[in-house]
Each structure stands twice: as structure tokens, then as C-alpha cells.
């Protein structure tokens, strides 16, 4: 038997309690102990996951597991870029776009089984004005909603939809100047999404054919549309068919420069922030090692609609249980 691989699970005990409190026991029960020497650490404050992951790189730990959503993946991933330590995920967030793109099950037992069978491989990651992202970044309506949702006390996909409806009433699309290495254009856009992965999360495929292994950013430019077209846009979004939408233009390039009318919100990996009116997005090829299915080509396999509705429903019930536990 060869030498075991070292694996570190990073858990934030203060978020998603009802989903995370059993994870150490489940890891002990279901991880392949013939393959891995296991360690579990709990984060204690904002930024602690980054520090622990950075220390793991210094100690040559083989795999660090981000137990959380895309924000946790971003914090851990930033510490692992350009190292030999691989990133794995147990998805416990509200969207889990990064994990879903890799085909990692949202069920904890099955996500541990995924880690048991996965192999490390290098994939791409992006930067927006120097800030790393691993799933997607963007501006426009989705950034406004992300910003407002982050400042709300409610969580879950249904509350996100509610916030989207509220913002729809007042949102006015901006004009953008978009430049790549072969395209220059002026566009009025409802959303500009730059994807390393195919989706925002919750199987909302905004850049459906993005790949994490092609060295390119997939940029989706969605033109403004009216209220009567909302059901059609939602259908495109959740059925992996936005490339068929007449209001969507897609380009793929190693970098894109975007200039807008004024500074404002953007998001990267679902985390909102304010940035200048000029934005530079670039793809870093083979910049981070992740645990993936052997031979994976970097693209995603879309989830059927019936499965999406099941996950939305069960996820909403889970959010309710977390609120009840927190109030006891």
C-alpha cells in the first residue's frame, strides 16, 4: 500500500448549522481511510478559512475541502492557486455553482463518495480587477440583486427570487463598451456575465457552454427584455439553452475589458462589491488544482428540470429548519 494522501476539511460552524453539524461524523464514516489521512478544522472568523488553507499549502497537504458555498470556495481557492494542493468541495451553500459545474452532488454522503473517487487536475480560474473568482462574475441586474440579497436577513432560493422581483421594478439597464482581443462593441445590457463555470448556482445556466479547461472566459451579454418575456428567459436559464435566445450574445476570449457609465456593483462567485466603471476580466489557465472525475473535460452536464424542482423544494425546507434552530 502506498503512502496515504493528506486531506483537510474546513468547516464554518456558524453558518448552515443544520447541514454542517453532522459532517465530521459523516466524514469519519464515509471517507476512504485507505486513501486519506483526515483532519478537520473549524473556522473562527472571517478570513480564517483562507489562513488555514494557506497554512495547508505550506505543509504540503494534498487536498483541502471547502465545506460551504461559492463564497467559501472562493476564500479557500484564493489560498490554493498556483500550488500543488487540490481543492475539493462539500457543497452547503444556497447556490453551489462551482460544485454543480464539477458534478459534485449536493448530498453530503454522495459528495464525500465523490472525493473518494476523484483525481486532482489543473483547471482555470478568473480575475476581475485583480480579484480571483472560480465560478463566475458579472454586472448589471444580477449584481444589483446579489448586493441587495446580501444585505437581507433572508436566505434561500425563493427569497432570492423575491428579491429579484423587487429589484426588477426599479432597475434600468446600462450601456457598456466591451472589448476582447478580437471584438469591440457598444451594448445596452440587462446582464453581463463572465463565466469560468456554466452557472450562477441552483442550476441557472447563464453561460451554458463554459469550460474550466479551455483557457477562455465565456461572456454572456443579455439585452433588455420586457415583463412578458420573463417566463421565456427563465426557461432558457434553467434548461441550459440560453445560447438559443435571440437576446443573448456570447463571446469567448482569454480576457475582456468592460467600461460602463459609472462605478457600481459587481459580483464574483456570488459575493457583491463595488468597483470602478472600468473592469478587466482575465482567465488564468491551469491556475488551480481541483478534485474532479478522472478524464473530466471541464464542461458541465445539465441537471434535468424535475431534479432542479426537487432540490429547490428540499433546499427551501432546509432553510426554514435553520431559521427555527437559530431561534431556539
- In percent terms, what proportion of residues is strand? 25-35%
Mean pLDDT: 88
Give the beta-strand count: 16
Measured distance between first and last alpha carbons: 49 Å
Estimated helix fraction: 25-40%
Q: Which class of secondary structure composition applies to the elements? A: alpha+beta
Number of domains: 2
Q: Low-confidence segments, ≥5 residues, pLDDT <50?
A: 316-328
Within CATH, the superfamily of the largest domain carries the name Probable inorganic polyphosphate/atp-NAD kinase, domain 1
Assembly type: single chain
Instruction: Name the CATH class of the largest domain.
Output: Alpha Beta
Question: In CATH terms, what is the architecture of the largest domain?
Answer: 3-Layer(aba) Sandwich
Main β sheet profile: 6 strands, antiparallel
Briefly note the CATH topology name of the largest domain. Answer: Rossmann fold
Instruction: Specify the number of helices.
Output: 10
- Tell me the radius of gyration: 19 Å
Shape: globular
Amino acid at each position: 500500500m502506498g503512502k496515504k494522501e493528506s486531506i483537510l476539511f474546513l468547516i464554518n460552524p456558524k453558518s448552515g448549522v443544520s447541514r454542517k453539524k453532522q459532517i465530521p461524523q459523516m466524514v469519519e464514516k464515509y471517507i476512504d481511510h485507505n486513501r486519506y489521512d483526515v483532519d478537520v478544522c473549524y473556522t473562527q472568523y472571517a478570513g480564517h478559512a483562507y489562513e488555514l488553507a494557506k497554512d495547508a499549502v505550506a505543509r504540503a497537504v494534498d487536498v483541502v475541502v471547502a465545506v460551504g458555498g461559492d463564497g467559501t470556495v472562493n476564500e479557500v481557492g484564493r489560498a490554493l492557486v498556483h500550488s500543488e494542493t487540490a481543492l475539493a468541495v462539500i457543497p452547503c451553500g444556497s447556490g453551489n455553482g462551482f460544485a454543480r459545474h464539477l458534478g459534485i452532488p449536493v448530498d453530503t454522503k454522495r459528495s464525500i463518495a465523490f472525493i473518494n473517487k476523484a483525481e486532482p487536475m489543473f483547471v482555470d480560474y478568473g480575475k476581475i480587477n485583480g480579484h480571483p473568482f472560480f465560478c463566475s462574475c458579472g454586472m448589471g441586474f444580477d449584481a444589483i440583486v446579489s448586493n441587495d440579497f446580501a444585505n437581507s436577513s433572508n436566505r434561500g432560493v425563493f427569497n432570492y427570487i423575491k428579491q429579484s422581483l423587487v429589484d426588477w421594478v426599479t432597475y434600468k439597464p446600462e450601456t457598456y463598451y466591451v472589448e476582447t482581443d478580437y471584438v469591440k462593441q457598444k451594448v445596452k445590457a440587462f446582464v453581463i456575465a463572465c463565466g469560468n463555470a456554466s452557472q450562477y448556482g441552483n442550476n441557472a445556466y447563464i453561460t451554458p457552454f463554459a469550460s474550466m479547461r479551455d483557457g477562455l472566459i465565456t461572456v454572456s451579454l443579455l439585452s433588455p427584455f420586457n415583463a412578458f418575456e420573463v417566463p421565456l428567459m427563465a426557461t432558457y436559464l434553467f434548461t441550459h439553452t440560453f445560447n438559443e435566445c435571440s437576446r443573448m450574445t456570447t463571446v469567448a476570449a482569454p480576457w475582456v475589458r468592460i467600461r460602463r457609465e459609472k462605478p457600481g456593483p459587481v459580483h464574483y462567485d456570488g459575493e457583491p462589491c463595488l468597483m470602478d466603471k472600468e473592469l478587466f476580466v482575465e482567465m488564468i489557465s491551469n491556475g488551480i488544482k481541483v478534485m474532479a472525475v478522472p478524464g473530466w473535460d471541464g464542461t458541465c452536464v445539465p441537471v434535468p428540470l424535475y431534479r432542479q424542482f426537487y432540490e429547490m423544494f428540499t433546499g427551501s425546507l432546509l432553510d426554514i429548519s435553520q431559521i427555527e434552530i437559530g431561534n431556539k
